[in-house]
Protein 1
Amino acid sequence: MVAKSLLVRLDGRFDLAAAGEVRRALLESPDGTEVYVDMSQVREFHDGAVAVLADALKAARRAVSVRGLRQHQYRMLRYLGVDASSLDPGLAPRRRAVSSVADSDG
């Protein structure tokens, strides 16, 4: 079995037309395809387009990796029901090291 992957790289403006293209790519890619969406070169995000992206991500039949969103877009996705840490592993909560310091009175 050969693993398939799809890279969707965007730049400039992420508007409704661009969101529609991402949605179409997610829906039309074959089962078993690893999908990566790179938005690191996007300079302008439209909130309506982010809502379309959220719907597309929730409807996707697979895990999708999205990179390059700003904090506002990740926050919007979370409000719209998308677990942003599943999109970008770098956002996963880090475990804090537990250390205990013993008081010494001596």
Protein 2
Amino acid sequence: MTEALAEVAAARVVSVVVVVASPPATRSRSRRRARVVVLAAVATFLALQFGLSRAIEADALPVRDPIYSEKFDLLRTHGEFFAASPPRPRLLAVGSSRTLLALDADALGTKLNAAVFNFGCHGCGPITTALSVRRLFAAGVRAETVLIELHPAMLANHDPPYEHRWLHEYRLKSDEVGVLRGYGWRLPTPVQHRPAGWLETTHTYRVAALDRYAPELLACPFGMTLAGRTDRFGFVRGADIPPADRRPALLRECGLYLPAFAHYRPGGAAVAAVRDTIDCCQSHGATPILMLSAESSAFRSWYGTAGNARLREWVDHFARETGTRLIDAREWVADADCVDGHHLTASGAEAFTARLAEELRR
């Protein structure tokens, strides 16, 4: 045992002697190589961050706003919406998940002998709609008519707008921050648009990038979009749920929108965004039509008597002021055809689309 310990000690002494005796030039070269490796790694990281930031800003990598990008990719397959002289009139419907689940664009187009596309997006209110319409026209989309959904709860006069719960800052282009401020939203400069914001590109857009290019790696199996559920005309067919599940679903929506119903009154940035959407449509030769989306009797009751009266008064005045046609669809669908008070079942969407076709024929 004593001999073994002596051998180990001797080996350590020899290794120390070898290190100490190594030529200074060798140690210097090792340090330089290590420094070069570190600097190369840092430079590669910075170049990757900067390149990704520029590519995302230019939409070469469409991960800034996955919800919009998915819908726009689908719209691009409909050449009529980009044609200068289409064979038939075109109608583009924009709005929230209410429109997404209510308007069967294929069926409506057949009834009207028109090209119809449903650009409804989940989590979309009047402000997100305004940004989407701006982007669409800038991308060369054309339509004779734009059906603009009015989501009454999202029109509530809040500061910040109630929609900020869904419209996350990372989804904005650099020039869109000023647009939202123009609506009256005192929005701080998002991290990714600050001078050093490009350093956080991979962190900011990591989930969106996985959602588009490697969804199997996402922790959430459902992803950020509705890929696989949307038909080629942008419509998602709703599903019936058992009667026992409807009341819990209704109560969940009540909890989600309860702050919007307190002292309800339309106004603020949300209303400014609707006005901008109308102006944008008219400046591009499209006729805007406003549509109050369908709600169950229980959902409508949450606004209160005074809130419903204020909504009615505001929307009538706003339509007259802007010279825009208004379609009031709040009571079009039976309560049984609402999954959770404002999203429609498949049968509800069928009834809604048929009624909308009648209204538009006028």
Protein 3
Amino acid sequence: MIERDKKNIWHPFSPQKGGAELIHIERAEGVYLYASDGRRFLDVIASWWVNIHGHGHPTIAKAIAEQALKLDHVLFAGFTHTPAIELAEKLLEVLPWTFSKVFYSDNGSTAVEVALKMALQYFFNKGETHRNRIIAFADAYHGDTFGAMSAGGRSVFNAPFQDLLFDVTHVPTPTVDNLEASITQFEAAAKAGNVAAFIFEPLVQGSSGMLMHEATGLDKLLAIAKTYNIVCIADEVMTGFGRTGRIFATDYLTQKPDIMCLSKGITGGFLPLGVTACNAEIFSAFDSSDMMKTFFHGHSYTANPIACAASVASMDLLRGPNCQNQIAMICEQHAAFLQKMKPHPLVKDIRQTGTILAMELKTEGDTSYFNPIKSLIQPFFFEKGILIRPLGNILYLMPPYCITETELLGVYEAMEEALVFLQKKS
């Protein structure tokens, strides 16, 4: 099987020669992935942050099967269906009360593209065509399509396309150390009067190394944005659906966004789906019989009924007491492990937001996605039967909520053993 894969398939984020071993997964159940060679892996990164209830959850699987036999797909321009309607209602119940509309796409990057276009056209439709500037964080990651790359921080990941990306004002993330500079630079950009939108990953910047900041600092930036009538876009593709301890990271904020991007955990990790939700004010600029004010955006699989049915089932599970208790347990266990590991000589920093825990290791090289320690540490965890995919010298946990306390404690023990292993190697 592996040879057939290598002959025909191009994998993402992977060097095509000399990369890590390719593992053939045959099946999955709960928090475990089962390989064709008999190995079992505890999936503590939720298969790239998407799986929130565990693999193969019967409730979601049943909803998918029933929907597949009823309606597989229908175009969403001029048509509708029950799963899309039910999902929109469930989302609007938990989104900020000012939110009134849900726009469907098919992944996180497209949800961001929709949000950026929505914000820019909001001002275009209002006749404020000079509002065409975007503010984002310097270390941002919003996806791999061109608008999302433009909003993201400049790095080696988008270096081949730098000359094709539109210009964005990047300000420091409002961490404790950077808060003053972030506010100063943000206000200077806002005063120019040409900013349409501010897009941000609330509280946790995932691909940048699980960088974390406090809600109080972010609130200050949002307050400035609202003073200058700048549309605020929360990219909750990764942080949504319980990852930060609450349903959304923006639930911790006093100031609320105008637009929110959702994906990853929305279907419980079963199917791709993207959502861009907005408040009534944003929608008002499009609520017209004038064809020129139409939002001309759509995808072939917009609001796929099977994906929507999976999301409806996932939302019901997420809001149930069992899932909420599990989220609380994970948060508590992470917090205890953080305190235990803070003094460790190999730990440069350890941080937590809700169910997300990140441990930054002290190494000879700088903190970076390309830090070579990854090539040592990932095989170590594979030997332990644990799927951890380090961001360079940053180890992180973002487990499915169905993980048991015993399993979680076992992962912590393996992380401590990994530090002993690295000490022996140094």
